[in-house]
Amino acid sequence: MMIPAKEELIKEVTFKTSRSGGKGGQNVNKVSSKVELIFNLQQSSFFTDEEKTLLNERLANRLDIEGNLHIVSQEDRSQLLNKQRTILKLTNLLTKSLQVQKKRKPTKIPKGVIEKRLNNKSITSSKKENRKKPGLD
User: Fold this and answer.
1) Helix axes 49-58, 79-98, angle to 10 degrees
2) Distance between CA atoms of residues 70 and 64, nearest Å
3) If you write DSSP's letter for every residue of 116-135 in order, what string do you get?
4) Of 8, 51, 92, 130, whose CB count within 10 A is highest?
């Protein structure tokens, strides 16, 4: 499970730019600052078949029909910053998706804890028993 460096990732992704909404005044209508990164998981040479299967399962709702992963960034006014942000989003997404959760080992309840619980139960029981009126058996 090794995520490739940014330089290698850039070789396998395609970028689409378009005009973005949001901040920028009149500049918004002229400059294509919105960046869409497209990454095809199946054609990627970075991952093994098992990793590709795992990524396909975990990112199924984010993949289109051809198996492309689309990541969009339009937060910044600069196209370069948005491009860097999409690459960062992609690496974060791939790292999260490839993480395998550790198996939980069930642990035994310590004897002291069990004794304390039973002791508390008996104390509560005797308290309630003492509240009853005598002679009503």
Assistant:
1) 110
2) 8
3) HHHHHHHHHHHHHHHHSPTT
4) 51
Q: Annotate 49-98 with DSSP letters as a single string.
A: HHHHHHHHHHTGGGB-TTSEEEEEE-SSS-HHHHHHHHHHHHHHHHHHHH
By the 10 Å C-beta count (0-12 exposed, 13-18 middle, 19+ buried), 109 is classed as: exposed
| Cα torsion 123, 125, 130, 135: sign | negative
pLDDT in tens, 22-40: 666 666 667 777 888 888 8
Low-confidence ranges of the chain (pLDDT < 70): 1-2, 4, 21-29, 136-137
What residue type is assigned to position 42 of the chain? Answer: Q
The amino acid occupying position 16 is K
The CA distances from residue 69 to 16, 58, 134, in Å, are 13, 12, 76
- Residue 36's contacts (CB-CB under 8 Å, 6 or more residues apart) are 15, 16, 17, 18, 70, 71, 72, 86
CB atoms within 10 A of CB 55: 20
